[in-house]
Write a structure and sequence with these properties.
single chain; alpha/beta; Rossmann fold; Alpha-D-Glucose-1,6-Bisphosphate, Chain A, domain 4; 2 domains; 7-stranded parallel sheet; 6-stranded antiparallel sheet; globular
């Protein structure tokens, strides 16, 4: 995919001047939400961008003569050396929020230590780090404390580090935006603690990208901490009410201060509640909620002098995000990165297992493969799963109860798919237009699962649609799980095939 097709052109009016040609720029976490917005901007400004990924089994979507893809894990110094060779500027966009609370801090610190050491030995001129905004005090959440510690660790070596600190990032597909939106859409009454009435300064994703690019292009040899924020400063309560007004929803708050539990525990309980109807994982929800007790505002405006432009206000940022969604222009999403346990799962064709089991059904449809594939490619999300809806929803509820992603993630785009896209608790592993769609399960189960749709042109001119469920069971429990599900598979899969037949052969409606 050409980067220009997903370029929002945030930096077209940026007043900083691009660096001379030939500079190699490294972007870590290249499949992450911010990186996917940043990379097309860098390519458009003439840079050679080296994109660093950890998951070796997920192909990078963007292709361009000025894009190089390299696989490396920051926990391995040996892997970092080729990633940082000949690099002049490196963007550090890595964090481990998906890990459990007792693990992400140590993991982030070790990764930052390795990166700083190798960057210094490779002669990197500058590191730009995007961290969290907050006041350094006793009430600082573990999430924000870890982000500040990462910045300090990166700066402990000889490479100059520009530490940009942002609060809530507002943009279609960002975790904070999705959390706020789902909170308002699914709650008439919202629990509230006085400690959560801190001040915040949300920032639009377009302004984050401008600061990231501008910080690299500034001529002054700067380093240090630079808070970045939008035009508005208000309490979290006011921010939710403003968002609700835009969505034309009426929400009310009720005080839960009388509950005799620590704030962190209350955040965790509420995170589990939100988890049942919000796509954001429990760990991320809990960390974001725990951060609400800290003021996250810009204590100085130095960055505005270095990268001069007028940032957007909160309402403008939200309305732009909603418009992107309405126009199916969400090119990056927080869920583009698979869950931690699924991060390095091999693709189906690389598995060799004697325990492989499969269930296959097919139907011949008197319609073109193109027409049938268009129906298949719209599966999931708001479009649903076409047959056995109650069973799909029940499986989604069970998955959420176990801590999985459930059906709440939906789809990035209601009509179009690409490799790596999420579809509820599936992810697109392979797609060949008018021929095949292969989905890998990211639900919690005692085994590895895939759902495959294959199209073949028959001699009689019909299109044969074959639906295959592949499964590699874990010992004992996996086989029991598959045996139980197999009683439902035939009903669900045959019903889905019948749906595709009916829709593909239905007379075209004349408006």
């Amino acid at each position: 995919m050409d980067p220009e097709t997903v370029n929002y052109h945030y930096c077209d009016g940026l007043k900083t001047i691009p660096l001379p040609p030939g500079k190699v720029v490294l972007v870590t976490g290249a499949n992450g939400y911010v990186a996917r917005r940043l990379i097309p901007e860098l390519v458009a400004r003439g840079y050679f961008v080296r994109c660093m990924l950890r998951n070796r089994h997920s192909p990078f979507l963007l292709k361009h003569p000025n894009i190089e893809v390299i696989y490396a894990d920051c926990l391995s110094k040996a892997e970092l050396v080729p990633a940082l060779e000949k690099v002049k500027v490196a963007y550090y966009l890595i964090h481990s929020m998906r890990l459990k609370k007792d693990k992400f801090s140590d993991t982030d610190r070790k990764a930052a230590e390795n990166f700083a050491e190798v960057a210094e030995s490779c002669g990197v001129d500058k590191i730009i780090y995007l961290g969290g905004l907050g006041e350094a005090n006793a009430s600082l959440s573990p999430h924000l404390r870890s982000r500040m510690e990462v910045g300090a660790t990166l700066s402990s070596r000889g490479v100059p580090v520009i530490r940009l600190r942002a609060a809530i990032i507002i943009g279609a597909g960002s975790a904070s935006y999705e959390l706020l939106k789902s909170l308002i859409l699914h709650n008439r009454w919202i629990p509230f603690l006085e400690e959560f009435n801190s001040k915040c300064q949300p920032i639009a994703i377009r302004d984050v990208i401008k600061y990231l690019v501008g910080a690299m292009e500034t001529k002054e040899p700067i380093s240090g901490v630079f808070p970045i924020g939008g035009k508005d400063v208000f309490s979290y309560k006011e921010m939710i009410l403003r968002f609700a007004k835009i969505l034309e929803k009426n929400v009310q708050f009720f005080d839960v201060s009388s509950v005799p539990l620590p704030i962190t525990t209350l955040c965790r309980i509420y995170a589990y509640w939100l988890h049942f109807f919000i796509s954001v994982p429990v760990n991320i929800i809990s960390l974001l909620l725990d951060s609400l007790k800290t003021n996250v505002i810009c204590w100085n405006q130095e960055i505005r002098k270095i990268v001069p432009f007028e940032p957007l206000g909160f309402e403008d940022a939200v309305e732009r995000a909603l418009k992107r969604e309405d126009n199916s222009q969400v090119h990056s999403h927080w869920a583009d990165v698979p869950p931690e346990k699924m991060h390095n799962l091999m693709p189906l064709h690389k598995f060799e297992s004697s325990d492989f089991v499969a269930e296959k059904h097919h139907i011949d449809i008197p319609a073109s493969a193109e027409k049938v594939f268009q129906l298949i490619a719209r599966i999931g999300g708001e479009n649903g799963w076409y047959h056995g809806i109650f069973l799909w929803r029940l499986r989604g509820i069970i998955d959420r109860f176990l801590g999985g992603v459930g059906l709440q993630r939906g789809r990035r785009d209601p009509d179009n798919l690409r490799v790596g896209d999420f579809i509820d608790f599936w992810r697109v592993e392979r797609i060949e237009i008018n021929k095949e769609l292969l989905l890998r399960a990211e639900m919690i189960s005692p085994g590895f699962s895939w759902l495959q749709f294959q199209l073949n042109l028959e001699d009689d001119g019909n299109t044969r649609l074959t639906l295959t469920a592949h499964f590699i069971p874990y010992p004992f429990w996996g086989k029991i799980y598959w045996k139980i599900l197999s009683k439902f598979h035939t009903y669900i899969f045959k019903g889905m095939l019948d749906y595709f037949y009916r829709e593909a052969t239905a007379p075209k409606q004349i408006p």
